[in-house]
DNA sequence: TCTGGGGTCCTAGGACCC
DNA sequence: TCTGGGGTCCTAGGACCC
């Protein structure tokens, strides 16, 4: 294993903080493909080589996903509007992204990374951390790290035709910054012990996690370099930037970064969103759109055999203010009818009369098992739907790869319109284990209470079909 | 003709429970 | 009747990353 040393300054930190250990050799690698999408397009279309290429949305509200280095010379950057990119570099080739191709190339690259380390943490299609200490019994020398990086670059170029940049250091932070500094086709290893001198003169904005808002706060107090951030006290950083964020960045500025390289990180949410070519104000059209997005997100959810408890709707208004509304179910679902209906309701909680430029639907609180009925959680108790409440307070701690028997002979279908003799019209949010939960809302009165009944409640009936 | 789409993490307030 | 604190869950928003 890599050599390990105690976290400097540990004595002064709060006792709840776990003991930190820093590596003593450059055994963390960060690798990413140079101008990935654009480079794939240039690779596949030789006439584009040597010329500016801009990949991104081609619609009226598109933005740049990736600009080739030729295009960057004209000031074209990721996230810039396509309109501005066209103004800066009209002679560029403007291409829509081909994600299926990028995913395939990405898989090739990740396979190559896996040949060099058993511990690969992908960050995106074109980027990953590699822990090269896992298979080594001795600390990794600078020369050994350089050699491994060189071989990875060679192999990626031979197999995919793409150039990558690799950085290595004793932490994720140092490796990542090192790979950034030498782009494109970079190879930079920060030797053990040289981390502080490497970091100190760099602008704070080099630290991943320091964006425009954080940079502005730091600049306000005269902090421009990583070394100047490190020279603050931990308390000053925490007060300036927030407790967690401030302390984290302050530690990073010292090079105190013990974050582990972690393969197989489970997804926490799934979402889809669309920006319209023109704003939509018509509630009927918005309702149709949000239903379609609910269907798309459930498709993605089910493709990964996941279920989720919390449904969110995101609305970006004409003036770009962004609102979210969410609701949490008593148990995870992957039922399109429930998600569709809930998304529709959440949309009604936002005033969209001024016009909407984007709608999104997301699902979080994911569990790794296929939902068979809404109450197939392990709380054991009966459903408790109280008036107006969606969540019951107790989270379903789902067992992995749960295999519940199907809820057979239950007459109620999630999403179904029903009428209760006392409570009026509503729709079935879920059923199972002898119970059915009804949300008493209609399109005209979209927000209403939730109540649960026995399956055979004589007062509950399917709504008349239209 | 301003500002995509997919995510992650953090904060802060209120509800609720012990 | 009054007075609390801690912990967890939920919601909404914001910063940030590629």
TrEMBL record:
Cofactor remark from the record: Binds 2 magnesium ions per subunit.
GO cellular component entries: cytosol
Pfam family, one: IMS
Catalysed conversion reaction: DNA(n) + a 2'-deoxyribonucleoside 5'-triphosphate = DNA(n+1) + diphosphate
Enzyme class, first EC level, given as a word: transferase
Keyword set includes Cell inner membrane: no
Subcellular compartments: Cytoplasm
Site annotation Substrate discrimination: residues: 37
Positions annotated as active site in the UniProt record: 127
Main location: cytoplasm
Residue ranges, compositional bias (Basic and acidic residues): 452-466
GO molecular function, one term: damaged DNA binding
Domain (UmuC): residue spans on this chain: 28-211
Binding site for Mg(2+): 32, 126
Cofactors (names): Mg(2+)
Keywords for the protein's UniProt record, in alphabetical order: Cytoplasm, DNA damage, DNA repair, DNA replication, DNA-binding, DNA-directed DNA polymerase, Magnesium, Metal-binding, Mutator protein, Nucleotidyltransferase, Transferase
Region annotation (Disordered) ranges: 380-400, 446-466
EC number of this enzyme: 2.7.7.7
GO biological process: DNA repair; DNA-templated DNA replication; error-prone translesion synthesis; SOS response
Endoplasmic reticulum recorded as keyword: no
Self-association state and partner proteins as the record states: Monomer.
Function: Poorly processive, error-prone DNA polymerase involved in untargeted mutagenesis. Copies undamaged DNA at stalled replication forks, which arise in vivo from mismatched or misaligned primer ends. These misaligned primers can be extended by PolIV. Exhibits no 3'-5' exonuclease (proofreading) activity. May be involved in translesional synthesis, in conjunction with the beta clamp from PolIII.
Family statement drawn from the similarity comment of this UniProt entry: Belongs to the DNA polymerase type-Y family.
Record's protein name: DNA polymerase IV
Origin species: Acidothermus cellulolyticus (strain ATCC 43068 / DSM 8971 / 11B)
Gene designation per UniProt: dinB
């Amino acid at each position: 294993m890599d050599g390990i040393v105690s976290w400097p300054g540990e004595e002064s930190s709060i006792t709840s903080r776990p003991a930190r250990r820093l590596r003593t050799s450059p055994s963390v690698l960060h690798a990413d493909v140079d101008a990935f999408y654009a480079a794939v397009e240039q690779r596949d279309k030789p006439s584009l080589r040597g010329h500016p290429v801009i990949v991104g949305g081609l619609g009226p509200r598109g933005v740049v996903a990736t600009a080739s280095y030729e295009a960057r010379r004209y000031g074209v950057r990721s996230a810039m509007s396509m309109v501005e990119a066209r103004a800066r570099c009209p002679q560029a080739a403007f291409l829509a992204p081909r994600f299926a191709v990028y995913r395939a190339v990405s898989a090739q690259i990740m396979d190559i990374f896996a040949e060099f380390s058993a511990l690969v943490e992908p960050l995106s299609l074109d980027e990953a951390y590699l822990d090269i200490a896992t298979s080594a019994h001795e600390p990794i020398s600078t020369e050994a790290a350089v050699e491994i990086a060189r071989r990875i670059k060679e192999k990626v170029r031979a197999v995919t035709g793409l150039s990558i940049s690799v950085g290595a250091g004793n932490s994720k932070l140092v490796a990542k910054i090192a790979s950034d500094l030498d782009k494109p086709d970079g190879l930079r290893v920060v030797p053990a012990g040289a981390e502080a001198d490497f970091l100190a003169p760099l602008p704070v904005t080099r630290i991943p996690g320091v964006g425009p808002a954080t940079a502005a706060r730091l600049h306000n107090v005269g902090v421009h370099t990583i070394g100047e951030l490190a020279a603050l006290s931990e308390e000053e950083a925490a007060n300036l930037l927030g407790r967690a964020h401030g302390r984290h960045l302050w530690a990073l500025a010292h090079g105190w970064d013990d974050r582990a390289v972690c393969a197989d990180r489970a997804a926490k949410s799934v979402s889809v969103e669309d920006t319209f070519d023109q704003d939509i104000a018509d509630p009927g059209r918005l309702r149709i759109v949000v239903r379609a997005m609910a269907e798309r997100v459930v498709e993605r959810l089910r493709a990964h055999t996941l279920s989720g408890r919390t449904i969110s709707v995101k609305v970006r208004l004409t003036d770009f203010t962004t609102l979210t509304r969410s609701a949490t179910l008593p148990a995870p679902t992957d039922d399109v009818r429930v998600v569709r209906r809930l998304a529709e309701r959440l949309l009604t909680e936002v005033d969209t009369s001024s016009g909407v430029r984007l709608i999104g639907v997301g699902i979080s609180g994911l569990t790794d098992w296929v939902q068979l009925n809404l109450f197939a959680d392990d709380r054991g108790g009966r459903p408790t739907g109280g008036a107006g409440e969606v969540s019951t307070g107790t989270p379903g701690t789902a067992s992995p790869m749960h295999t519940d028997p199907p809820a057979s002979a239950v007459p109620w279908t999630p999403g179904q319109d029903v009428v209760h003799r006392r409570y009026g019209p509503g729709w079935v949010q879920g059923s199972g284990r002898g119970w059915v939960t009804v949300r008493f809302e209609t399109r005209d009165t979209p927000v209403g209470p939730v109540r649960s009944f026995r399956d055979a409640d004589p007062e509950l009936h399917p709504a008349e079909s239209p």
